[in-house]
Structures are given as C-alpha cells and as structure tokens.
Amino acid sequence: MRHLLLRVIDAVLLIWIVTTLTFLLIHLAPGDPASLLASPSATASEIARLKADFGLDASLPVQYARWMTGALSGDLGSSLAQSRSVVAVIIEALPVSLFLGGISLLGSFLIGTLVGGVQALRSGRRADTAITVVSITLYAAPSFWLALAAVALATTGASALNAPAWARLPAFGMHEPAALATGFDAWRDLARHSVLPLLVLTIPGAAGVARYARASLIESAQHPYVQAAHARGLSESRVSLRYVLRNALTPLVVLLGLTLPGLIAGSVFIEQIFAWPGLGRLMLSSIASRDYPVVLGLTLVYASAVIVANLLADIAVAKLDPRRGG
Amino acid sequence: MAGDQVKRDRLSFESDRALMLSLLVLIVLVAGAVAIPLTAADSSRSIGDILATRLVAPGGYDQLGAWHPLGTDAFGRDIMVRVWSAARISLGVGVAGSILAGVLGIALGAIGGWTGGLLDRSITALGDALLAVPRLVLLLVISALWGPGLGVVITVLGLTGWMSVMRLVRADVQGVRILPYVECAHALGVSDARVVWRHVLPNALGSAIVAITLGVGNAILLESGLSFLGLGVQPPTASWGNMIAAGREWLLVAPWIALVPGVLLIITVVASTVLGDGISRRLARYEGSTARMGER
C-alpha cells in the first residue's frame, strides 16, 4: 500500500514536470502568436490589445502561475484559434481518438500475443523466421507510408482488380459526406470507414507486441517449474496455459505503457491522412496556428495517459507476480 | 543437453548471418547514397522540361529518350536520383541524431550514476518526463516553434533520444563503481574524472553502442515523419519523408512516387534494427563467455 502511494505521488510529480517543461518550451520559443492571429493590417496597438486579451502581456512567471492555478481546478485556458475553452476543444476531439486508439490497442495485444504464441510453438523453424521477417518489416514501416499504401490499394488497386462494391473501402473521413443515415446504417458506415485506419494503426502495434510475446513465451517455457509441471504428467495444454502463458503475460503488461507513445504518434499521422477529427489532427492544426494553450493542454493529456498507463502496468505486474509484492 | 548445444550454435550462426546481411545492406545503402547522385547527369533538385519528363512510370522512357529505372515525379525529376540523394540526408540525420543522443546519454548516465544524490535524481526525473511525452509530439512542437531545418531536426533528435542510453550507462556505472579495481584506482590517487573515463565508461560502452545502433532506425523514422508533415527537411532538398508527402497527391495516378522512398526507408530501418539486435546478441555471448572464464 505504501509502495502504491509512493508510485502515485511519483506519477503526479512527473505530470507536473512534463507540463512545466512544455510550458517553458512553448513560451520561450521565438515568434508571437498574437501577431500571427491578428489580421495583416493590424496596428501595433491592436496587437497589444490582442496580447492583453490572451494574457500574453504578463511576465512568464505570472503566466505560469495563472496557467497552473487554472489547470489545478480543471481549467486549461481558452483556445486562441477557436474562441472556446481548451477543455471543450479537447473533449470534442477525444472520443475519435479513444475509438481509434482503444480498438487498435486491444487488437494489437490480441493479434500480437496470438502471433507471438504461434511463433514460440514453432520457434527456430521456417514459419517462425518468416513471421519474424514480416513483423520486423511492418514494425519498421512508417505508419504514414502504410496508410498511403492502404489508400492506394483500396482505390487504384481495388478498381484494377475489379473488386466488388462491398470490398471498396472508403479511404477518407469518418462517414459519407452527406451522412444522414441513422441507427444501423450509420454504424455500418462508420465501421466501413474505420477498417483502413484501424488496420494501419493496429498492424505495427501487433508486430511489436508479437516480438515481445514470442521472446517472453520462449523464456517462460524454459523455467524449471515448466519442466516440473511436465514431469508431474500434466497435459500439454494445461502446462501451456496455466504455467507458460500465465508467466509470460507479466512482461506483456509492462508493454501496455510502452506501446502507448507509439500509438499516439501513429494516430497523429492516421488522423491526418484519413481526415478523422481526433486529438492527433487537433495537435497538428494547433501547432500550425500556434494555438499555445491547446498544444499545452494536449501535451498534458498525452503525458498523463502515458504516465497513468505505466502506473497501471506497475500495479498489474505487482498483482500478477507475487515475488514483486502485491 | 547436447541437442541444446547444437540448437544454440545453430541459432547463433543464424543471428550472425542476419548480422552480416544487415551490415552488407547498410554498406550498400551508404555506397549508393554516396555514389549514385554523383553519377547522375541531372541533379536531384533541378527541374527541366516538365511536360516531356513528368510522371514516367518505373522502367519507362521520357519523351526526350532518357530511361528512368524508378520513374519520375510530378516535376519530371528522376526518382532513382532523388531517392538516393534523399538517402544522404535521411541516413546522415539518423546517424547524427542518434550519435548526439548517445553522447548525451553516456555523459548524463555517467554523471548521474557516478555522483548519485540530487543531480542523479534530477537527471532521472528529466529522463522520465521526456519518456512520458511521445517523442513525435516533442519533435513536432519544437520544430514547429523553432522553425524547421536540418540542424533543428538533428538537435531535437539528440535532445529527445538520450534517455535509454542514459539508463543503461547509469546502471552500468553504478554497478562498476563498487568493484574492487575502482576502489584500487582511488587508493592510488587517481582522480574521479580519470577513473570514470578510463575504468568505468569502457565497461559501460557495449550496451550504449547497441542502444545507439537501435536508435538510428528510430531517428530515421522520426525524421521522415517530420518531413512528411512539412516540419523537417524542406523541399526542394529531397528526404524520404518529404518525397512520400509529395507523392501523396499523385497516389492515384503515379503511386510509385510515394511507394519507392518508403521501400528504401523500410529496408534501412530493418537493417539497422537487425544490426543492433545482432550486436547485442554477440555482446551477450561475449560477456557470457568471459563470465564463464571468470568462474574457472
């Protein structure tokens, strides 16, 4: 319990360090958002008023103190580009990213563990080597390139192959432009639009998980207690599930916290290429328009997600592995 | 047991084969990046008669009669030449960024691991904080705010990539610090800095080199991502990332413009990953054998 409390305090401190660093990074950068937002013909006094409106005229420590007191009460300031609160802007984009990220995280782990398991059973044989080559290649492929390749396949490729209409997947947006469909049709439309982005986001993740799962399963199968279980005459499947898999899962849980940054980075490209209005796309547009408060808010959300995932993974490991104290 | 030995030998032979193959691929890539842009008649940036030369499919001839093994882009520039001059940029940025990250990581890890205390805790906390933000997001924010460009990309790759090397070196230094020969050197009156430089760091270098090698692929991927988004290497200078971005709008008409640089990028990243894995396995075996010698 004491250990857990210390880890939580660590996590909170870490989030504070990240936000402070990002704040400094953004505010010490050259360039001035007010002159970028003002119309080209704006006079110096108009720009000065704009600056005062956004609170950009105050000294750095004052701005920092203002931002921190706001953040502690759940107020991340207001967006410079859209005259709304940062929290509202982020909450609007959040479901899209949670949908993409959640399904692909789940998919990565399911597919990855399965593939890694098949490889571990066939370790050292030709099938294992072939899968390793494929998964290293997919893991190395940049997600934006995979996305473009998928778009090329779904459009030019599908028409070249004379694919049936149901197999021609939409490569752009979340739903049909004139989406008036309701109920089942709306869900079907969303599902069809999700196939390509989800595939491109999931495949590299699954490849990464498979590599870890394979190593972890092979290592786990070499433990003396597995031999002991065999010696006691337990069935093959019982040994695999109860002893090998159970103990190989622990390192995979740690992977949860490690996969998240890659997933976030991937979603930036995927949302941009497939035009899904999620957090990644918001990040890019906010950076382009120098919308400091939104960039800062998004960094806070991303960092918190990664830190909390690591914290949860730590707790799960302690629960799964009695040797590390529960 | 004998079977185990045979299996292990076969595995190590295979991993060595992969190591040699990846090394060969990387040598070919570097040689190509150096040589091919030199031999080309037209530069990778200059634009000639656009209408006569644009969008030639791979293996085709343009209207002026020149052969283009990988086709041409929307401005009639030969993709073969561009993709290899982009290799110079991408390989250079990846290696430079990764080495910068490695040097930073070794320095901070050695300082932290050796001194301990508040300095060590600050370095570790900074590293943990940087690890919590996806590296791409950091890169995006910094290069957007400080202006895109080669120097900024390399610097930022270095500043955001030192954490894994730092952790490895720090752990190694902490382990070596308490060994008898370090105490011995101290007793002989050797200064701290000299002990770290001569006796502690060489022992920690192996794992750092592996991490740096593995970092090259990652750095190349990040550079290409930044350039794809328009925040890295700026056109007309070719980089794999901005070539893919330029091919995006021609995806339906001329898919090779975006696909070719991606293939080269993947080959590079796979080769450097396999090389890093191979070196690390070799190192583990070497350290294993010296440990066994120690037991005897």
Give me a quick take on this structure.
The complex is a heterodimer of chains A (326) and B (296). Chain A has 326 residues and is mainly α.
How would you sum up this structure, described in words?
- The complex is a heterodimer of chains A (326) and B (296).
- Chain A has 326 residues and is mainly α.
- Helices cover 77% and strands 0% of the residues of chain A.
- In chain A, helix 5 crosses helix 8, helix 6 (126-140) crosses helix 8 (183-221) and helix 11 (279-288) packs antiparallel against helix 12 (292-320).
- The mean pLDDT of chain A is 82.
- Chain B is mostly helical and 296 residues long.
- In chain B, 77% of the residues lie in helices and 1% in strands.
- Chain B contains eleven helices and two strands.
- A two-stranded antiparallel sheet of chain B has the order 1-2.
- In chain B, strand 1 and strand 2 form a beta hairpin.
- Chain B starts with a helix and ends with a helix.
- Chains A and B meet through helix 1, helix 6, helix 7, helix 10 and helix 11 of A and helix 1, helix 4, helix 5, helix 9 and helix 10 of B.
Distance between the termini of chain B: 21 Å
H-E string of chain B: HHEEHHHHHHHHH
Helical stretch tally of chain A: 12
The largest sheet of chain B is:
2 strands, antiparallel
Number of strands of chain B: 2
Low-confidence stretches of chain A: none
SS class of chain B: mainly alpha
Please estimate the helix content of chain B: over 70%
Strand percent estimate of chain A: under 5%
Give the overall average pLDDT of chain B: 80
Summarize the amount of helix of chain A as a percent range.
over 70%
Overall radius of gyration of chain B:
23 Å
Distance N terminus to C terminus of chain A? 8 Å
Radius of gyration of chain A: 24 Å
The greatest inter-chain interface is formed by: A-B, 50 and 44 residues
Q: Please, what is the average pLDDT of chain A?
A: 82
What is the number of helices of chain B? 11
Tell me the major beta sheet of chain A. none
Order of helices and strands of chain A: HHHHHHHHHHHH
The shape of chain B, in one word, is: elongated
